[in-house]
Amino acid sequence: MSFKTLHRLSLLAGLCLTATLTQAQSWPAADWETGSTPSGVAVEAFEAYSFPARDDANPTGVRTDAVLVIRDGKVIYERYAGPTKAETPHLTWSVSKSLMATVMGVAYGEGRFKLSDPVASYYPPFAAHPQTKIGHLFNWASGLDWQEGYELAPLRSSIVAMLYTRGRNDMAAFTAAHHQEAPPGTRFRYSSGDSTVLAATLKGMVGAEAYQDYPWTALFEPLGITSAVWESDTRGTYVGSSYAYMTARDLARVGLLMQRGGRWQDRQLLPEAWVDFNLTPFADFKPSGPNEQVPGGHWWLNLAYEGAPKPWPDVPPTAFAALGHWGQSLYVLPEQDLVIVRYADDRDGSYQHNEFLKRALAAFAGEVQP
Amino acid sequence: MIKRHPIVFLLLLALLILLGLAWQNRAHLAAFPDITSAYAAKEYCSCRYVMDNPADYCVSYAKLPIPLSGFFDDAENKRVTAAGFGRTNTAAWIGPREGCRLLEQTDALPD
């Protein structure tokens, strides 16, 4: 049995399991229900890693702003640090990419595009790259000569230029002006430009007027998300790569939607085929080192792939995540029925997803944990 | 020339290479000085007016290793102007869903 088939089957099994539990499921209404909060040594060990003493003047080490843990659709743990509070719409950085994918998943369900459609049919400036399909962008496989990387190499960084200097007025056009370095669909290279172009294609799909409210009408309002802010460039294109904000409690709603296969209460908001695409590894991905998350359709997967071990060895392979700069994370662990939001301000590389999740599983996974 | 003035030749060669590199990177170099002030103005604006964090926290939050030569938080109008490296940039809060954005026109820093 091929790896892909196995992965699909395990997803299907997860969905069936979820379906049989529908009757008993909790869903957040205007606010989340609260379940009983675990305590004990495992929770203490989790907190010792996640919330060490912090120094804002000299920011080093693990600097968690918020942790929210949802189990079986109920809040079982919630803690804030630094200036962040329950009502803070925290910057999600690149978690925005997976949020844009989820917004566009609703558009996909409305039949507004197919993954095989050329990008240029919805965003004409991409006529310079006629072979690039929408699906290539979701796999970060545009093949453009994009340079991601923030503070360390500011001179040639495409992301810094896009957000702050040459690209900031029209970020999608700035991306489209990059050279085609590899044929589209053949090479994974993480690119905020690819995500921003997706945000521009959405404008072409739904029309400029509906676009202004689309993330709200399509996703945020159906989920009961009220705190969202999404910044745009001068052209009014959402900064799909970087600039969505919401509270931890609101971001967890997106996690629950994904955990439950795109269904929100009685409504299949995202087609199952869409979630399946989100969670399918990009076929031509070649891991370049250990602990490198596997790219799916604008979400990150914890899969052993192409001979490389699971990026998070102590975490089940069915786990997936939306991940952003400075430690922003939305983790979904379907087998444990857990959704975990972590907001942070990690300014160095000391935070480790695996260590955090290992301790979170020990503290919060409950009896389901084998 | 090479035999008589080897050092001058090497210096000229180095200068030519540098000019070549600068020309190749001219778009990057022209934009580079804007990074510090644009980053500070934008990220401070969002920290303060989108996330609603305290002003003093946002100052250190939006700081890069290179110091600014000027900074003004126009709290009444939610407009943030920063200067550094000879460039000035302004970010403004647009609305409750729209958050902050860098503007094409910059505000003048108060004297």
Walk me through what this model shows.
The complex is a heterodimer of chains A (370) and B (111). With 370 residues, chain A is of the alpha+beta class. Chain A has two domains: 1-88 and 247-370, Beta-lactamase, CATH 3.40.710; 112-223, Methane Monooxygenase Hydroxylase, Chain G, domain 1 (Up-down Bundle). Chain A has twelve helices and twelve strands. Chain A has a seven-stranded antiparallel sheet, covered by helices on one side. In chain A, a hairpin with a 4-residue loop joins strand 8 (294-295) and strand 9 (300-301). The two termini of chain A are 25 Å apart. Chain B is an alpha+beta fold and 111 residues long. Chain B folds into two domains: 1-31; 34-102, no CATH class. Chain B contains four helices and four strands; from the N terminus they run H-H-H-H-E-E-E-E. Chain B has helices at residues 6-24, 26-31, 34-50, 55-61; strands at 70-74, 79-84, 87-95, 99-102. A four-stranded antiparallel sheet of chain B has the order 1-2-3-4, covered by helices on one side. In chain B, strand 3 and strand 4 form a beta hairpin. In chain B, helix 3 packs antiparallel against helix 4. Chain B is elongated, with a radius of gyration of 20 Å. The A-B interface holds A 56-57, 59, 82-84, 88-91, 151, 154-156, 160-161, 163-166, 168-169, 216, 228-234, 243, 245, 345 and B 25, 27-29, 31-32, 34-35, 38-39, 42, 46-47, 50-54, 57, 60-61, 64, 96-102, 104.
Keywords:
heterodimer, A: 370 residues, alpha+beta, Beta-lactamase, Methane Monooxygenase Hydroxylase, Chain G, domain 1, 2 domains, 3-stranded antiparallel sheet, B: 111 residues, 4-stranded antiparallel sheet, 4 helices
